[in-house]
Design brief:
The chain has 267 residues and is mainly alpha-helical. Helix content is 64%, strand content 8%. Strands 3-5-4 form a three-stranded mixed beta sheet, with helices on both faces. The protein has a two-stranded antiparallel sheet with strand order 1-2. The structure holds zinc ion (ZN). Residues 132, 136, 189, 192 line the site of zinc ion (ZN).
Length: 267
C-alpha cells in the first residue's frame, strides 16, 4: 500500500509538473490554447519527421512539377509575416505518391504528393492547400495536439494506478478518440482554412479558387475520402464559411496586387 500511494503521489506530481509547464497562448484567431512544448522543440520534431519522410517515401523525379510546386510554395512563404518567414528554413518536397495530400510541419518543412496535382488543378488551388497547411503551422496546431496527448497519457497513468478496469479505460480511450478530440480537430481545421484563405490572398492567389479546390477534393474522394478531408469540417459548412470570408480575402488580394504580387507558376 505504501508503494501504491507513493506511485499516486509521484504521478500526481508529474501531472502537476506538466500542467505547470503548460503555457496558455492563443491562436491567430484568438482562441486560447494550452501548449507544453517550446517552439524550438516542435521545429526539431518537424524537421526530424520531414527527414524520415524523405527517407521512406520516394521523391518525385518530375522536374517540371517540382519547379511548379516550389514556385507556389515560394509565393506563399513570401507572404508570411517577416518574423515567421525568416525564423525557419522553409522547404518543400514533391513526393511520388498518388494520394491527394500535402502537409506543412512546425519548422517550415512542407510536402506535396503528386496526386494532389490532379485535384488542385491550377496554381491558385495548389496555393489554397499549401496555405491551409501553413495555417496549421502558424496556429501552433501540432504543439496543441502533442500537448493534448501528453496530458491524456498522464490522466491514463493516474487511472491505471487507481485500479480503473481495462474495459473502462478502453471506453475512455474510445471517447477521447471519437468524441473529445474530434470536434477540437475540426476547430483546428476551420482555423487553418481561415488563416490559409487570408495567406493565399496576401500571396496574390485568387481566394475564390479555394472554393473550387475543396469542391474538387470532395468530388475526388469517391468511396474513400482523401486523408486531407478526414477530420475536416463537412463540405457544406466549410463552403459557407469560406464564402462568407471571400470579400475580405478579395480586399487582401487587392493589397497584394498593389505590391506587385502576381504569381505566375505554370506546370
Ligand atoms: Zn488541415
Amino acid at each position: 500500500m505504501i508503494l501504491f500511494s507513493r506511485r499516486v503521489a509521484f504521478t500526481s506530481a508529474l501531472s502537476a509538473g506538466l500542467l505547470s509547464l503548460a503555457a496558455c497562448t492563443s491562436s491567430p484567431l484568438q482562441r486560447s490554447q494550452v501548449v507544453l512544448y517550446s517552439e524550438a522543440d516542435m521545429a526539431a520534431r518537424g524537421s526530424a519527421a520531414y527527414q524520415q519522410m524523405r527517407e521512406e517515401t520516394p521523391v518525385s523525379e518530375d522536374a517540371r512539377a517540382i519547379r511548379y510546386v516550389n514556385c507556389v510554395a515560394d509565393h506563399v512563404v513570401e507572404a508570411l509575416p517577416v518574423e515567421v518567414r525568416t525564423r525557419y528554413a522553409w522547404e518543400v518536397t514533391l513526393f511520388a505518391d498518388e494520394q491527394a495530400n500535402a502537409f506543412a510541419l512546425p519548422g517550415g518543412k512542407m510536402g506535396v504528393y503528386e496526386g494532389l496535382l490532379n485535384v488542385a488543378i491550377n496554381q491558385h488551388q495548389l496555393a489554397a492547400v499549401m496555405a491551409h497547411e501553413v495555417g496549421h503551422v502558424l496556429a501552433n496546431h501540432s504543439n496543441e495536439r502533442a500537448s493534448q496527448s501528453a496530458l491524456r497519457n498522464v490522466g491514463f497513468g493516474v487511472a491505471q494506478i487507481l485500479g480503473v478496469s481495462d474495459a473502462t479505460l478502453q471506453a475512455i480511450d474510445m471517447g477521447t478518440q471519437l468524441g473529445v478530440f474530434l470536434p477540437f480537430n475540426r476547430i483546428q481545421e476551420s482555423e487553418a482554412d481561415i488563416v490559409g484563405l487570408s495567406l493565399m490572398a496576401q500571396a496574390g492567389f485568387e481566394p475564390e479558387e479555394s472554393i473550387s479546390l475543396w469542391e474538387n477534393m470532395a468530388a475526388s474522394g469517391g468511396g474513400r475520402q482523401p486523408e486531407l478531408l478526414s477530420t475536416h469540417p463537412s463540405p457544406a459548412s466549410r463552403m459557407s464559411d469560406l464564402h462568407a470570408r471571400i470579400p475580405a480575402a478579395e480586399a487582401e488580394l487587392d493589397s497584394a496586387q498593389a505590391l506587385g504580387r502576381f504569381p505566375d507558376c505554370i506546370r
